[in-house]
Amino acid sequence: MATSTTSSRRPVGSAPERLFTPAFVGLTVADLAYFTAIGMSFLLLPHYVTGPVGSGTAGAGIAFGAFAVTALALRPVAGRLTDTVGRRPLLVAGAALCAICMVATAHVDTLAAVVAIRLLLGVAEAAFFVASFAAVADLAPPSRVGEALSYNSLGLYLGIAGGPLLGEFVMGRWGFTTAWHAAAGLALFAVVAALYVGETRVGQPVPGHRPRLIHVKALPPALGFFASVVAMGVFLAFAALHADDVGMARTGTPLIVYGGVVVVSRIAFARVHDRFPPLILGAAALVTIASGLMVIALWAAPAGVVLGAVLLALGVTFSTPAFFAAIFATAEPSERGAASGTASVFLDLGIGGGPILLGFVATAMGLPWAFGVAAVVALAGGAWTLSLRTPGHNQRREESPVVRPRRVVG
Do 183 and 273 reside in the same domain of the chain? Predict the structure, then answer.
């Protein structure tokens, strides 16, 4: 199967098209605020459920995972709405609903109520995440889509990494209620930033046309993305446990190394993404991810875990921007919401399903085997990704000029 996943290449010697517009910066700020609020909830929720709510660790796990149920189910719906009503309504509604959920959590004291709020938070997650990725593709110059995705993803990574630290600090100083309200404040700031960005959708929906829930053309490259997410999810779930098994003094070191390498590399190598066809870059990223996991599986020592984390992080640096660039290249501007919604389903499936399935492998055969199987999944994903290319795709095609949307403020 051939998938058109190419992007425009600007003429040699010409000045690069402007990427860091006020709207692009505003969207990245909105992402940072929103995902920092989500990151705070990652730290606050288990302590809150096992503390004031009076439940156990099983209850904390149920509450934590509840939001993924609605998020997974509603991402395609969010994609359709993103293409029909626009990006800004879903960005604003998603961030506002997130703020409501954070405030509400501070004022309930039963597990059932917390789970209900978390299910509602999944609705917010589906709306904001899908609309945000579609808006990035709208705002990026055609020749800098990969670079735009690389920079913009820093908001997500920094938010998820820094949110727990902020949540722990605020909770320790002022308690749960203030911490939940602080998370709500960040989500409201994301609302303001999204309003500033304005509507980014190109053109208007065709009257009578009902966009599909699933963007079928995005499925082939999304399977490669799925392989990368499964591999990443297994590392995130089991790295600390494996670090303890090999005698590392600080079991969080592999995760810290991984996060640091991804953030630094996303900045340092942002412009690399648009110099290679996205499928080639995605396949190379998967091979690098597999190499890191095999090092972890075969070298049962602290140095092996750290080296493996570095290699894995380098692969992840390129995998998500490359695959989303390939996915968006299969879609017209009016279909970017559907493409984003379709692809992000695989994010939930990989992050959630990968650790669950390979957790059984780890239980039966040990953690190194789980990392080894994840490496095989990544290699299979790389082979699949390469199979999507044909000789006619070895060079990027030149696309017709794209009319850039005028930013509407307010």
Answer: no
